[in-house]
Amino acid sequence: MVRNVIGSVLALAGAAAAVWSPFRAWYDGRPGGDYRIQDLFGGITDARTEITTSILLPFAFAALVTLIGVVLRSRVLVALAGLVVLGFTILWMVRQGQAAGSLTVGGEGPVLGDGVAAALGGGLLLLLGALVMAGRSPRVEGFEEERDWDESGYPPAADEPYGWAPGPGDTQPLPTYPPQPTQPYPSQPTQPYPSQPYPSQPTQSGYPVDPAGPSTPRRPRPDPYGAGPGQDPFRGDDDPRR
Description:
- This protein has 242 residues and is mainly alpha-helical.
- Helices cover 35% and strands 2% of the residues.
- The chain has a domain at 2-132.
- The protein starts with a helix and ends in a 110-residue tail after the last helix.
């Protein structure tokens, strides 16, 4: 901000000096407003012209460009105005040197006036102001998208995919959204495991053979009470029911 202010002041001062310079003496007491614009391209003559068709015209154009550049904070426009002022001033010096044979700053005879110094100083101030100015700050995008706001000051519900929460002074109700249809996952048919019953072939011990186990038939467990085959181990030898 400070750089823009200082640069703008320098640029405006340079533009004012450039516009004021044609009213001062440029060479041998002749003001710059007496030189025609076409003399800068075809050669300096003694013909005089109006102020509106003189060398003041490009300087006034440079001052207008400077004002636009200061308002827009454009360094390019201010630098362009400085180049215009310096370009036309140097071109006049070249043509005047060709017409007079030489240019003298001070001394006896025809010399350069203070109008040339004001024009050169104005162009340099314009370039200096363009260098000092910081220009316009770049706009940062991507943090927040631009949204279209309605007359009530609230964003439309279509632009708010996740809804919004009203503040303490808000009276507009929350936007409602239609429920999204959900499709259940298709149920997968389950296949029961095939049952594999044990084979019912009788063996010598009376027990079926386990297909997952060994092929040797199971032996009967011995009686812990010493009863023989066909006897009840819970009855004594003198039991009449045997």
